[in-house]
Write a structure and sequence with these properties.
heterodimer; A: about 110 residues; mainly beta; six-stranded mixed sheet; five-stranded antiparallel sheet; B: mainly beta; four-stranded antiparallel sheet
């Protein structure tokens, strides 16, 4: 039962253009959403997050948008840089017994072409 | 902040052998998680510790798996009687006590069962 879905396994974007990574979720209990970036042979690294009470959060070149009615979130990277090439995991969490239980999608591999 | 440290980075073992992995979280983090990642999948939750107490275990964690966190510091994950299906990347993460504090992952231990 995949509660967090990333339907695009890969994405290629030219350097300098916008990268848009999408994520859908099914569990209405999720109240916090995160994006992680993963390089080969490394663990995932936290990138940006958004609370369910907001619809947008921005941090430098990275912006996350949340559409609760559609149960959809997206990560925008502008402008894209070759160093952004990595696997991006969408994650969602909810309060489970006093801690935030985090569920991950399967990831989208982004390639930024110089 | 030296980050989350995991040892060993790689482990190759024969089916039926026992293996043990170690995780040293970020020192001020009281929450510790174990995740497993297989090829083409996102990290899957295995278990969660708050200080030394193991508060949740996934149904993925069969009785061959045991995790400990003595004194609320480092943690170990042991797999007994390994099977080929146990081959995966085992990721440890820690987080601060603040709610919605993001997970900080180590670089993982890659287990290969032959």
């Amino acid at each position: 039962d995949q509660q967090v879905k990333q339907n695009s396994p890969s994405l290629s974007v030219q350097e300098g253009r916008i990268s848009i990574l999408n994520c859908d979720y099914t569990n209405s209990m999720f109240d916090y959403f995160l994006w992680y970036k993963k390089y080969p042979a490394e663990g995932p690294t936290f990138l940006i997050s958004i609370s369910s009470i907001k619809d947008k959060n921005e941090d430098g070149r990275f912006t996350v948008f949340l559409n609760k009615s559609a149960k959809h979130l997206s990560l925008h990277i502008v402008p894209s840089q070759p160093g952004d090439s990595a696997v991006y995991f969408c994650a969602a969490s909810w309060n489970s017994g006093g801690y935030q239980k985090v569920t991950f999608g399967i990831g989208t591999k982004l390639q930024v072409i110089p | 902040d030296t980050g989350v440290s995991q040892n060993p980075r790689h482990k190759i073992t024969k089916r039926g052998q026992n293996v043990t992995f170690r995780c040293d979280p970020i020192s001020e983090h009281n929450r510790l998680y174990w995740y497993r990642q297989t090829l083409g999948q996102g990290p899957e939750f295995l278990t969660y510790f708050q200080n030394e107490a193991q508060l949740e275990k996934s149904r993925l964690l069969s009785d061959r798996f045991s995790a400990e966190r003595p004194k609320g510091s480092f943690s170990t994950l042991e797999i007994q009687r390994t099977e080929q299906g146990d081959s995966a990347m085992y990721l440890c993460a820690s987080s601060h006590r603040d709610f919605n504090s993001p997970l900080h992952f180590g670089n993982g231990t890659r287990l290969t069962v032959t």
